[in-house]
């Protein structure tokens, strides 16, 4: 594991406790120094692991991802939003011999979108993400904008536009937009929106798509992580499901 925060910590402890058949925890790289987990250096991790799970954020993925893959280790990416950077994606794809895997994170329906886009290009794809207003404050916002988010009594649409731009503007909240764009294989066809709602007890993602294969609508409503409300509580369990499928494949939908 790289990172042992609200996502990586749950994953690492589940692996440590033997809850994933066929997978064991070889170590954790964590600058914060989680005291109940086996902390190792990156070099040690690369020498003892078949699969490295990145759960430390976009900067960490850019810094260590190519090294992991070049060392022949497979890499499971949680910070999918970082792949809005085409240069980074190309660097990771060419860094092998390790294989690159992406976590589905907080959403579903990607397999059907991928199949529909393979049949014929989709003509329209949108993803609208709604989160608790106070959790969407960003460093680039002015003091006035941040204060408005923290005190608004009504839903506010913060941004709507190309998925690549929205992902860059909300790096901790728009991994889902990147996942949709990567699934359909076309960043330009995906429009994303981020909506702040002071009454949003659950984080929602509404995905719609149209194309020759049909019309689709998926709505996902997740409980936010109690430790890190910008992420959904289900995300580490999506990571664990991906690890389980890689470690001991049985009946797996791909």
From TrEMBL:
Top-rank taxon, per record: Bacteria
Ranges of residues in domain Aspartate dehydrogenase: 153-239
Domain Aspartate/homoserine dehydrogenase NAD-binding: 3-95
Signal peptide: none
InterPro entries the record matches: Asp/hSer_DH_NAD-bd, Asp_DH, L-Asp_DH, NAD(P)-bd_dom_sf
Family of this protein: Belongs to the L-aspartate dehydrogenase family.
Protein name: Aspartate dehydrogenase
Organism for this UniProt entry: Amycolatopsis tucumanensis
Source species taxonomy: Bacteria, Bacillati, Actinomycetota, Actinomycetes, Pseudonocardiales
């Amino acid at each position: 594991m790289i990172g042992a925060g609200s996502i990586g910590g749950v994953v690492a402890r589940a692996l440590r406790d033997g809850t994933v058949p066929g997978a064991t925890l070889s170590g954790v790289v964590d600058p914060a120094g989680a005291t109940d987990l086996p902390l190792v250096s990156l070099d040690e991790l690369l020498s003892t692991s078949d699969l490295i799970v990145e759960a430390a954020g976009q900067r960490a993925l850019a810094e260590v991802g190519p090294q992991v893959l070049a060392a022949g280790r497979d890499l499971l990416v949680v910070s999918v939003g970082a792949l809005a950077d085409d240069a980074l994606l190309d660097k990771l794809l060419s860094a092998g011999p390790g294989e690159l895997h992406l976590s589905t994170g907080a959403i579903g329906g990607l397999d059907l979108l991928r199949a529909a886009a393979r049949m014929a290009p989709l003509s329209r794809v949108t993803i609208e993400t709604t989160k608790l207003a106070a959790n969407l404050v960003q460093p680039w916002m002015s003091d006035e904008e941040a204060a408005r988010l923290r005190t608004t009594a009504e839903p506010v649409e913060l941004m709507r536009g190309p998925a690549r731009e929205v992902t860059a503007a909300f790096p901790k909240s728009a991994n889902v937009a990147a996942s949709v764009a990567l699934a359909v294989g076309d960043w330009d066809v995906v429009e994303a929106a981020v909506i702040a709602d002071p009454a949003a007890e659950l984080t929602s993602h509404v995905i719609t798509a149209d194309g020759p294969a049909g019309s689709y609508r998926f709505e996902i409503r997740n409980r936010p992580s109690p430790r890190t409300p910008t992420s959904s509580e289900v995300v580490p369990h999506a990571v664990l499901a991906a690890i389980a499928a890689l470690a001991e494949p049985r009946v797996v939908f791909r």
